[in-house]
Structures are given as C-alpha cells and as structure tokens.
Amino acid sequence: MLQQLLPYLAAVLVEQVRVEEEKVLIVARTRDGTIVSCPDCGTPARRVHSRYRRRLADAALGDRQVVIDLCVRRLFCDSARCARRTFVEQVAGLTVRYGRRTAALVEIVQAIALALAGRAGARLAAVLHVPISRATLLNVVRALPDPPRPVLRVLGVDDFATRRGRRYGTVLVDLDSHRVVDLLPGREKAPLVAWLADHPGIEMICRDRAGAYAEAASAGAPQARQVADAWHLWDNLAHAVQRTVIAHRSCLMPPPPEQAGPVSAKTPDPALNPDTGAEKWLVTRTRERYRAVQDLLAQGWTISAIGRELGLARHTARRYARCENPEALADRAIRTTRLDAWRPYLISRWNQGCTNASALFREIQAQGYPGRTPQAVRRFLRPLRDTAKAAPAPPPKPQDLTNWITRHPGRLRAEEERQLDDVLSRCPQMAALRTHVHTFARMICDRTGTDLPAWICAARADDLPQLHAFVDGLERDRDAVLAGLTLPWSNGAVEGHVNRIKMLKRQMYGRATLPLLRKRVLLA
C-alpha cells in the first residue's frame, strides 16, 4: 500500500513506518548488491566504502509532514583514469544530489516558487505542510536552469520598465512560439547587439519605432528584415493627430449664438396669453365646459339636469347656456392681479439685464407695489426665462476629438458623430486630417503597404505640419514601415508579455532584481 502511495520507494527497502503527532517518519535503506555507476566516468562500482543516513523531506500525507530517513551507500570508483575516488549512490525519483528534499517535493517547491515567489509562496507551502522560508523559495527560483532555447526565426523586441521613468529592460520574444526567450538590462543598443551576435540565423525582427532597437538590429543581425510594429505606427499617428487638434483648438469653438431680441411691453405677455402661461388651464377648462353645456342643451336637457351632470351650480350652467361666444368666457377666465401696473417696468428692467426676481420685487415695492413676497414677480418672469435661449454647449475637448477622428466611424455614437461633423464643417484641415487617418487605418487593416507612397504625397499636400513630422519619421524608417504595413507579423504577443512582466514585478512589490524577474518570466 505504501509503495502504491509513494511509488518512488519501490527502489528501496522500507524498514519502518512511524506515525507521529505531526509527521510520518519512514525508515528505509538502499538495496545491497545493486550496481551503481560512477557519475563522472560511468564505471560500475561494487565496493562499498561506508554507509550514512540522509534525512529527506517529502510531500505531505493528509495533514502530516512526511520525513524519509534513508540509509545510503558510499562506493569506490575503481577506474584509475577517474579523478573521483568515492561517490554516494542516488535513488532515481527519490534523491537529489546535495538535496534534503525528495524529487517529488522539489517539483512542488519549484512550482510554488515560480507561481508565487516569496512571502505568498511561503504561506501556501505552510498550508501544504511544507515548511520553507521566502528566502529559500527565491533561491530555488534563482537556481533553476534556463529553458532550452529554440532556433529563432522571427524575433519580437520591446522595452519594459522595472522602475518607470528610471530603469528599463528589453524583452525578446519568439514570435513563432509566442514564448519569451530572454530579458536584457536597459534599452540601449549595446546589449541587444551582443545578444544578436550570439544568436545568428534570425530572419526577421519585429520592433517598435525606437532608434536604438533599429540601430541594434542593423548592427547585430544585418541579414534580418526589420518590421515596424503596426500598433506603434498607429500610436505615433494618434499623437500626431492630437498635436494637430491642439494646434486648431480654435476650430472647436462653435460660432456665437444669435442674441435674442428685447421683450416688448406691447407684445402680448406670455403669462396672459390664452394659449400659454399660468392661465392656460383655466382657459382650457372654460372652453371644455362651454362645449359640454351646449351639447347637452342641444339634446334637450334642462339647466338643472346639466348642472347636476357636470357638477356646476345652476347659475353657472345658465351663464354657459346663454353665452353665444366662448372666447368671452375665456377672456373672463384670465384674472387681473395687483402686479399688472408694474409689468411694463419689469419688462423694461428685464431688457436692461436685471433678471433677479428678488431685486426687481424690492424696486417695485419701493414704488408702491402692495405685495409682501416676490412670488408674483417670479411667476411673471418664469415665461421670460423659458423663452430665453439656453447657454451653448461646451466645445469638445482635444482628446475627445482625437479619439473620434482615430476611432472606427461605425463605433461613434450619434452625439459624437454630430459634434465631429460640426467641427469638420468649420475646419477643412480637420476634415483632411480625418481622411488621411482613415486611409492609413485601411492600409494597416488590409495590409496594403504598397499604397504608402501615395498616402505620403497626399499628406504632404495639405497644410498639416504635425502630420508632416509623422511622415518624416516614416520616411526615415521606410523599409521597416513598409514591412509592417504588408507582413502579418506584429508585436502583439510582445505587448502581452510586457503586461505579464508588470504583473510579476508588482507581485514582488517591485523589489525583484532583473535576474530573479528573468527566471520567473522564462520559467513561470
């Protein structure tokens, strides 16, 4: 049963299994007569020099730590040509040279160290009944060998920050397998040139627009074709668009609105108009009652019956029945107020710019207005405020306009498209810029790099200095840009690994040295 649970014990003789309070102790020894070869020369050894006991920690069983007390042999190497005189036998799958953990436990510790590193890894190991310190976990990561390096054909290069604004590194990715092959210190030319010289045979190098990487690729791998990453090309164009928008920020302001004319005292007051204002509901009710009374009267109803049906007093029903013109009743529904005598004065002050109801109330009160509160003045001014033109909407921000110009037209909301069209109608330079941006986007999506010369000529023909600076950069790196707009290779996988590097760096609180970070990136 024990050998089924721990198959690597099949090569040894288990003498005793002792279950203690917090651990399981397994006492075992290697088999006598087993021929073991010298690790240096491979000569079979039979003569035993001595025996000694090794104490090995193993993976836990349940909630108990497992310890193996193993007796091993030290043997003589009888080859005269071998410099080694004695050696200790190793048990395959169980022991590791100079190790105090079994091979199974070593794999567990390595997996924890690569996934969680220091303190977090130590906490998880304690839960798994594998006591180990954070420093030991980091040493385990540092001691791991590098993975075998494949034959590189297409290499992706980009930079990452170990401390933003201060220290940087360079990440190299095999774009065929999408695996990181190395991390280099700094983002200068020299380290990359030396690395490329040690790895000949690279056919293609995909990079960003940094001049140091372009020079390093030319010096270290002159046979490789350089490809400018399409995303970085688009990002450079977006920055040129933003600078152009900032230079034309005056075009973002809408034209000043037409000034509303002054309110005339002779104009019918909206507050007293039978079709609008505060008295509208009285006028509407009067007209509806008049029609209802006349309809019932035509059907032969009596005045008393009409009053009971409509909920009107008999004299009110009689007044509606005898009236020939409903507008006369509507005019009577418009009530006069104590404010009527001061309305021309209020309109005059409104046209002079005084729109504060409390201030106007104090002025007419000083002239003899008998009201005690400014509520009537507020009601009178409310229609005037409603008819005043609303304040113009704020202009779009430069970053918003940059986003709208560089975004796919089908992803613009209706309001964004309206504001963008409004700006483009006022600024022909912005309209031309948007056309150039959309043409460049089609080149990236359709991989039609052959259209680049025509696009450059069209961009230079317009008065867009900021776009001309972007074009100058394209022409300095013309071959790589053409390759980036034509070939299917890009730095997308490299950017993904840059994000992964940031995650691993932050997981170690930014305190990991480059060698430790490199091991985790290559092996995790």
UniProtKB/TrEMBL annotation:
<dbReference type="InterPro" id="IPR002560">
    <property type="entry name" value="Transposase_DDE"/>
</dbReference>
<dbReference type="InterPro" id="IPR029261">
    <property type="entry name" value="Transposase_Znf"/>
</dbReference>
<dbReference type="InterPro" id="IPR017894">
    <property type="entry name" value="HTH_IS21_transposase_type"/>
</dbReference>
<protein>
    <submittedName>
        <fullName>Transposase</fullName>
    </submittedName>
</protein>
<dbReference type="Pfam" id="PF01610">
    <property type="entry name" value="DDE_Tnp_ISL3"/>
</dbReference>
<feature type="domain" description="HTH IS21-type">
    <location>
        <begin position="288"/>
        <end position="350"/>
    </location>
</feature>
<dbReference type="Pfam" id="PF14690">
    <property type="entry name" value="Zn_ribbon_ISL3"/>
</dbReference>
<dbReference type="InterPro" id="IPR047951">
    <property type="entry name" value="Transpos_ISL3"/>
</dbReference>
<feature type="region of interest" description="Disordered">
    <location>
        <begin position="256"/>
        <end position="276"/>
    </location>
</feature>
